[in-house]
Queue: 2 jobs
Job 1
Amino acid sequence: MSTLVKAQSVTKYFGSKLALSNVSFEINTGPPVALVGPNGAGKTTLFSLLCGYTFPSSGELKIMHQQPGNAHLFGKLSALPQDAQLDPGFSIIHQLRFYAQLQGFGKSQAKQESDRVLELVGLSDAAYQRPNDLSHGMRKRAIIAQALIGCPQIVLLDEATAGLDPVHAREVRELISTLSNEATFILSSHDLSELERLCGQILHLDQGKLTEHNALSQSTSQQHFFTLRLAQKYEDVEKKLFALAGVRNVHNSQAKEYVIEYEKSAEAFDIQLLKYCHQQGWQYQQLVNGNTLENQIFHKEH
Amino acid sequence: MIFNWGYSLMQLHAKRSLDIALFELVRLFLTKRGLFAVAAFSICWLIVLRYAIGEAVNLLNSPNIAGFIDQVFGAIGLSKLLTWPQAELAVYWLIAVYSFPSFCLFLCADQTVGDRQRGTLRFLSLRATRAEIILGRFIGQLLILIVLLSITLAATLAMFTYREPSLFFAGLSHSLILLGYLVVAVMPFIALMSLINTFSRSARLAFIVAILFFVGGKIIVGLLAWQLPALEVLNYIFPGYQLADMAAQNAGLMLAVGLPLIQTMILLIFAERIFARSSL
């Protein structure tokens, strides 16, 4: 496992406004990394710094031991920047071929590569259309396609599935999941369940500060939580669950959803819990082993 | 600054710059908008060729007013042009040497600013250095102007060859020399727009800033030179300073070629340095 990104005390000001404050982290090759936080937390700023679009006010940021934006990173780091649009004057395929050529592909290879990435995002039929002739979702998929040209080692996707319909959002998620063996993805999204499904590591930014930096699996396995989502509202669920043996705490995280903290010694608590639901006649929708990312973040921010 | 510029230069990849330049050429000739621009340009030049150059040549060749023309051209320092056997080329030269640099400001107003506003530069900057982008876009605009200049020169060549076929060969070599001078003359204007594009927020604003630079700048330098005549030297910062001498064929090689090349290099270095430090 090698270090792909190393940030040391990175601070970024826009004028007098502090966007990132003393952020330090490391990202190694491996499963996708989630970058989460509320609007204005500094996620897009961090993405811009990683891509070399803007520069830190202080601190040091290295991508594969290079300064962001360095020519050695061309073809190794790719990105879906938020709000960036393709050139409206040219067809999608023309632009993708151009980008592939800039990455060092020959003319015929660039054509093949562009066809390949368009097929990956399901846009082969729209290859010769201009960006303005496409829907918002199709444009976004075209931009995701440009991020997949070649064999990037780091792919940064800022709000990759925002604005996509559920079918295409799912396809993009599956694409990321499939390609995550070949590249390390860094994803930002407000869809926390999406990030939970895809990512193995989380960077939580809040008001420009990095408040958490650990593996999702680690954080859940050490804390002994279950998140139970019921099909409908039932009476005194919180009180009844709390009365169960081994339960330390229960709270109603949101409508029909309960986070149950249990004793470390309580073995096979999930089986016991499901049996109890059955006895009570409670229909459940989902039982999550751990505290959901959404609940963890909500708990931190409030 | 010199160290950073040297480092940017070391990272410069000629093929990437050329790819960016050729993409700009394609933009003009293979996109609808570009073709409309070429069509509008061609119609304007057809009118110039037919009415301005065609009619002026008739006047220049008229024996009745030859003495008057001699006096007028002599008074404004253009008498050398009257010695050219290809009168069409002389009139073309007079129009082109002033109109192309001004046209440049308009044509090259959007080199990077539109792409920066739209975010397209973010895709490019992951594949090319900022120096390559600036240089590529500059070369692209230069190639476009070379093509447009060549078209207008070819049309002028056709005009005087039609009038007098024996003028073709001498006229062709003369046209190629003029093309070289015109290409060098427009270079600092393109580079100036490259520089203004690095901090402007729109192509329209870039054009306005360029006009203000020339008008306001000349007034300021004029006032400074009035106070201290040695400051007259500041006029050398303005692209096109040599155009009047060039038009009259009185500019030496250093003034006609050296000055615009030096201005171009300095403007591009400033453009690259500002662009390298700006956020995309």
Note: Residues 224-301 of chain A form a domain with the Alpha-Beta Plaits fold (CATH 3.30.70.100).
Job 2
Amino acid sequence: MVMSRIQKIPVVEEKKGNPLARVFDDLVRFCRSRSLFILHYCTGCGAIELPPAMTSRFDMERLGIQPMVSPRQADILLITGYVSIKTLKRVILTYEQMGSPKYVVGICSCTVNGGMYWQSYATAKKLDEYMPVDLYIAGCMPRPEAVISGLQKLMDRIKSGEADSWQDYYQNYDYYLGNQQKLFGEDWQTPTDIITEAKHYELMGEGTLGEHTRLLEQHQNPLEALEMRLGHNIKEPIE
Amino acid sequence: MTQEVTHWLDNLLKEIEGIEVRRKSSRRVRVDVPADALPALLELLQGRAGYIHLSAISCVDWIDDDEFELVYHVWSYENHSLVSAHIRIAREPGVYLSVYDLYQPAGFFERDIHEMYGIQFEGSPNMEKFILTEWDGPPPMRKEFDSEAYINEHLSWQEYNPEWLQELVAEGGGVIIPPEEQRFSQKKK
């Protein structure tokens, strides 16, 4: 699925006489597409197709795709099945912690429209309402071949520079935040300050700020740095 | 040996008044008791017949009869048999006694049933949220809870025939299921 809302960022006119600039970008994109780390975060049942896709039978690593344990170091967030509303909160926290560029791949029909859980009160139906999705791999559930073919499509899109839906999260943050607030309540807040990040990356779009971000500012508790200390003070009882 | 035990169990169950025993097989007995006799029955089964394992409490919402059915499944490691004790309680106010003092695992089952059906168990140690910790709607397993109306209000749909799937179908893969074949609310009557 192609996200079409992304606005074209005004590009400063290229300096003439630097033919290597574009070549360097292409090289970076090529390298990026050949070294993808999938976050080890699995929801629902589709995750069962990943061990065969990763291990010797289908061996994703020959394409440069490997599992990674921490969101800060991962490139791809695979949503492998139904996302319950409780899980969705954690998925959004995880997504916001990942470093850009980041790609979301929805596997199984459940991420498209709820799948067989379409009537369930507990699962979210459309994943792309809450975070921009680069690619859906439909099926209930898709076989490892389908997963790999989908990831190859993602690689092609990264190589050609089309897979930039992570920018959409910054440019249309108000839309995504509005859907999140509708589901989680008005006082929904994540520990990541997306608006400041958008300013930092110079990705402020027309949809970054709006009524929902104003609502967020009303309810927002100021973010504080976590206290760093080694170990527990033994004298204090651990609750 | 098994015959002897089943015989003895049937005799034991006759001691309780108003009880209906239906033997499903040599290892399964269904017992229907009045709600106020259940604690006595469980005490008898646990203390004198070795049914020390409460494997589950299940609940059925009979909305047409205006009743909840609670089923207590107890298992004996000595007799290798399962007794399912069925009781019916009134749907309103939906209050029953806890069997936590007889079987401690009942605490979890009762908490779960409280969360899903809204039944209050008197004497249960903890009636707080169990799994649906972030849920503030009505108990979702009650029959009057309309799941489809709830999701229509809170979540939005996406039909399962988007453009990209049509591309796949043209290539020879994928299936399009029209929503009127899938969803009750859109079924043609």
Note: The longest strand of chain B covers residues 53-62.
